[in-house]
Protein: Phosphatase PAP2 family protein
Amino acid sequence: MVLFHSMGSVSLYTFLAVVALLALGTFSNPIRVAYSFVRQLVTSRMYLLHVAMVVFILFLNSVEMKIEQRMTYNYDFTGVIYSFEKGFVAGVQSLFENPVLTVILGFMYIVVFQSLLLSSLGIYSFEGRYRMFYATCYAIMINYLVAIPFYLFFPVNEVWSYDTSVRFIMLDVFPSFETQYRALSGLDNCFPSLHTSISVTLAVLAIRSGNKRWAWFTGISAVLIIFAIFYMGIHWLSDMLAGTVLGLLASAAGLKLSAYTASRNTLADSKATSKLVKQPAYDTKRSPEV
Structure:
């Protein structure tokens, strides 16, 4: 079954998924949640700065692929990875391949993955969990900043392109993947797996946030997305293990950095409030007119 005919259909599904996830994560009207997020961007320079930094890092990831095309560095570490893992991914495919599972996992890999990030920012903003908002921003940036050098200097090709016993199942649900989506994900940008690291990051932060519904959903989603990277024939076991470690470290670092940012914002807010309280509405020392 073909789910995605173009990036337009991916965008539509993503929009609908974000709306549903905002409602699930907050039990509130998604429009209210979106409005709260936009209002924070408009009224808080710190919010806007962090979102802008995340957008910049995502842009930097696309620039990385252009830089890679111009590099004369020709090493390929795919054979090294294959020598350790052999037919692991092929075994997963032969054991689990099923048309219904293909649709579910294709949707998880393409749509739910990116919807989780967008929804997390909206949910934490709406609930006033500002530390978790900043932690998410920092952790995403750390994931990409650590992964990009590996993509440049430790290239590993996707499993299906190297192991002839592995099929690229993604084409069953997204036939134009190579022409429509490939620009967002280089063929040799495998180690570490960002689908794994970011999914783990979002799950860990959701658990720490105290929002149990969101923690359960992101945790289950992380498991399905990680399984999807093997099922679709994209990532090696080594990619997943490295991605898991990266996700755990990035989430821990994000929480540390966000504690500092949140404390500074609280201090700034308290100072601003104290100034307003201390400022009299009129001059009480002024002598009354005779």
